[in-house]
Design goal:
The protein is α/β, with parallel strands linked by helices and 360 residues long. The chain folds into two domains: 121 residues, no CATH class; 218 residues, Spore Coat Polysaccharide Biosynthesis Protein SpsA, Chain A, CATH 3.90.550.10. It is 47% helix and 16% strand. The chain is built from 14 helices and twelve strands. The protein has a seven-stranded mixed beta sheet. Strands 5-10-7 form a three-stranded mixed beta sheet. Helix 12 crosses helix 13. It is globular, with a radius of gyration of 20 Å.
């Protein structure tokens, strides 16, 4: 009886919050707009040969940016990234290519690359774009317009997460659902409480004033989850920021196989909880909203059946808000079990995981 009640309350709360956020979520619309601010687009790259051509093509096609410089940094790639980058950006004066310094002691790769790029730029607005992100021609100008219209110091423009294989479809939708279902977005937007921090470093914008105010990336230099850590740092420093759906203007396929998913989440999930209490809360949440609804339903419990329906509805609203596959909501119990496996894998393999040739 206690388990049934706890499960129903958790699933109802998640469903209600998902419904509210579906209507209240800020959205970056694919509109033609002109930005007259000086803009620096920072592009850290390590072994991104497969992404260079499509990435640079989407950047060259950007519209409405009167004063933009694309700062590309090759971070010790061994797959020909630098050579491909040189060819792809040839004769376009907006692109500046930097060869990264050897990784400094105490730094993770991406924060160190971003710090180098930040030091090389002087623009008023900083835009960070990962190499596996694809942008529509109005993406950057529209995202900046959204950030400015909300009077924010930073803005996480959340790309549509492309999921092709079954392993991707099981796991990737959980990224957006995790905050759509739990964070009161409009309250978070008005707050500087770091507990409300949401960020995806795939497509991230900030004013130079805000980033300078926290010394760039120096205080998150050893963070695996550099995007969330940066958002928390900015909020603690009283800079306002928010997240918004950018599925109309940006997309990203993070991983293309189960092995890549396991390696990618293996490096990050172990540090996502921040404390033993956070770990317990997360596991309890996943059990109440992912495992128990199905288990109770299979035992003939009406409460379990209702709870399962509420969770399916929550996942469906998350998918609908971001251009995802609504039918994948029905796989939520399987997704949860796989996520629990990834959490265990991340904890057990924490000393043996590498990413792009570097230990994490």
């Amino acid at each position: 009886m206690i388990l049934e009640t706890a499960t129903l309350i958790a699933c109802a709360g998640v469903s209600l919050n998902s419904c509210l956020n579906y209507f209240l979520l800020r959205r970056v619309e694919d509109l033609s707009t002109v930005c007259n601010h000086e803009i620096a687009v920072l592009l850290p790259m390590r072994n991104e040969a497969d992404n260079i051509v499509a990435l640079i093509a989407s950047l060259k096609a950007q519209l409405g940016l009167a004063k933009v410089t694309f700062h590309c940094l090759d971070d010790g790639s061994t797959d020909g990234t630098f050579e491909l980058l040189s060819v792809a950006t040839k004769s376009d004066a907006r692109f500046v290519i930097h060869q990264g310094l050897p990784l400094a002691d105490g730094w993770k790769g991406k924060p160190f690359a971003l710090q180098q790029l930040f030091n090389q730029s002087q623009s008023q607005i900083i835009v960070i774009v990962d190499a596996d992100v694809r942008l529509t021609p109005n993406a950057i100008s529209s995202a900046i317009a959204t950030m400015k219209s909300l009077n924010l110091d930073f803005f996480s423009a959340y790309p549509r997460q492309i999921a092709v294989t079954w392993s991707e479809r099981f796991i990737q939708p959980l990224l957006q659902w995790s905050w759509i279902s739990t964070v009161p977005l409009r309250i978070a937007e008005k707050s500087c409480n770091p507990a409300f921090a949401i960020a995806n470093g795939q497509f991230f914008l900030a004013s130079r004033q805000a980033l300078s105010g926290v010394d760039g990336f120096k205080h998150i230099k050893n963070e695996v989850l550099d995007d969330i850590s940066l958002a928390r740092l900015l909020l603690r420093s009283q800079y306002r920021g928010s997240v918004g759906d950018a599925s109309q203007v940006a997309s990203c396929r993070m991983y293309s196989s189960w092995n890549q998913i396991r390696q990618g989440y293996g490096k990050s999930l172990r540090v996502a909880f921040r404390s033993p209490i956070g770990f317990v809360i997360t596991l309890t949440f996943l059990m109440l909203t992912g495992v128990l609804p199905l288990v109770l339903t299979l035992t003939g419990s009406l409460v379990g059946f209702v709870s399962l329906g509420l969770i399916f509805g929550s996942r469906a609203m998350s998918a609908a808000s971001s251009g995802g596959n609504i039918r994948d909501a029905l796989t939520h119990p399987i997704s949860t079990v796989l996520l629990l496996y990834l959490i265990g894998y991340s904890l057990l393999m924490r000393r043996n995981i590498t990413w792009k040739g570097r230990p994490v």
